[in-house]
Amino acid sequence: MRILVVGSGGREHALVWKITQSKLVDKVFCAPGNGGIAQIAEGIDIQADDIFGLLEFARKEKIDLTVVGLEKALALGLVDEFTKAGLKIFGPNKLAANLESSKVFSKELMARYKVPTADFKIFDSPDAANKYIEKIGAPCVVKADGLAAGKGVVVAKTVDEAKSAVISMMQDKVFGDAGKKIIIEECLMGQEASILVITDSKAVVVLASAQDHKRIFDHDQGANTGGMGAYSPAPIVSTDILKEVMDKIIYRAIDGLAQEGIDYRGVLYAGIMLTKEGPRALEFNARFGDPEAQAILPRLKSDLVELMLAASVGKLSKIGALEWDKRACVCVVCTAAGYPGDYAKDKEISGLDQVAKLDDLVVFHSGTKRIGDKILTSGGRVLGVTGLGATIKEAINKTYQAVEKIKFEGMHYRKDIGYKALKS
Question: What is the pTM of this model?
């Protein structure tokens, strides 16, 4: 098979890395890819939002399956165009991807189908939003409706902070049209977990649990980011909790979409808050998490391509139980100075050759480019250093030992990824 992966981040590197291990695969392309992906697949100079450029390439190169990593491509209708052209593609169509691309759509769907979530109200006026904030007080959560690269959520500890978020999103338009509408919701307390499944709208296959670390600094301080690290499995997700998440959140969402005539094929990712009252859905994403994919996929022993192909053609029920590595996996994200705000680029990265010699370690590139024989930084999240260990603690130690071998000017990383799991 000839596979095309769409995207350029650490998630896409993890997907390409896993796909190349499939016995079904002869050739892997990635559009546009990055400096790390280029070492194991052919990078294609087509941007992930160039729908018709990708379609033309897939036709010309006789691509057997396209795998969409990036949410923006899903929101733009890449799957719809490929499906119309009779090409196999893994990912939800534009209507189904609204579950991620519009938080208003998502929250309203949760309300209709009794998916447990935080109480919320929707606003298209900053004045009305600020009056509501004055009424309910803080803490509260302010969310931009549209896609904002994982940064469109502000957990406000004070009324002033919440109002500032409203102005930033709705008047200053820091997220562009994504902030035309916003949601203000109650601030749920507890530990977060990520539950990812693959579905074809009928059958559902559950992937290993994970926990992401969103804040830029240790101990969950500072601004929200696209993700500073993750680990899998998440010990806090017991068998009973997973069953409750599946019954009350995952199945209700998929069934709700089906009742509205929406066929969902691909990854469904539920961000969950484990509260004292039980699991609550924070959000849905319509693709693999980043960096959750980097922590989950190294543990998957089953053939990922078989799984994605079956989901794309509606035959997921024919896939048996997945096989998992019993070891734990930890991914630590290294970022550029300034991230998640304006960040430096074009800094040379050293130490990758040393890490490449280590067992049970892989570095997934996120924001890198190759110039000659050098790897330079090109994004905010630069690398995802990922290690396997017999226990979470062993995986943490192994991963941080590798992180310390890598250097680039201004490199930042959290030093507490995975430590919550040691307390669970």
Answer: 0.94
Q: Which helix (H) or strand (E) holds 132?
A: helix 126-136
Distance CA 129, CA 42 (A): 48
Q: How far is CA 403 from the centre of its chain?
A: 22
Instruction: Classify 13 as helix, strand or coil.
Output: helix
Positions of the chain with pLDDT lower than 70, given as ranges: 424
Are 32 and 45 a contacting pair, CB within 8 Å? yes
Residue 189 in tokens: 């307390």
- CA-based nearest residue to 381, from 261, 226, 230: 226
Q: Which residues are CB-neighbours of 198 under 8 A, at least 6 positions away?
A: 204, 205, 207, 266, 267, 268, 307, 308, 311, 316
User: Do 34 and 9 form a contact (C-beta atoms < 8 A)?
Assistant: yes
Q: What is the C-alpha separation between 179 and 174, in angstroms, rounded?
A: 8
Name the β-bridge partners of 186: 140
Q: How far apart are CA 213 and CA 218, in angstroms?
A: 9
Say if CB 229 and CB 194 are below 8 A apart: no
Q: Could you tell me if 159 and 186 are in contact, meaning their C-beta atoms sit under 8 angstroms apart?
A: no
* Both structure tokens of 250: 């995952």
HEC sequence for 128-175: HHHHHHHHHCCCEEEEECCCCCCCCEEEECCHHHHHHHHHHHHHCCCC
Q: For residues 59 and 5, give the distance between their C-alpha atoms in angstroms, rounded to a whole number.
A: 14
Token duo for residue 28: 């892997």
User: Which pLDDT does position 223 carry in this prediction?
Assistant: 87
| pLDDT for position 424 | 61
pLDDT of 89-145, one tens digit each? 999 999 999 999 999 999 999 999 999 999 999 999 999 999 999 999 999 999 999
**Which 3 state secondary structure label does DSSP give 395?**
helix
Provide the pLDDT for residue 389: 98
Which pLDDT value is given to residue 423? Answer: 80
**Residues 370/378, Cβ–Cβ less than 8 Å:** no
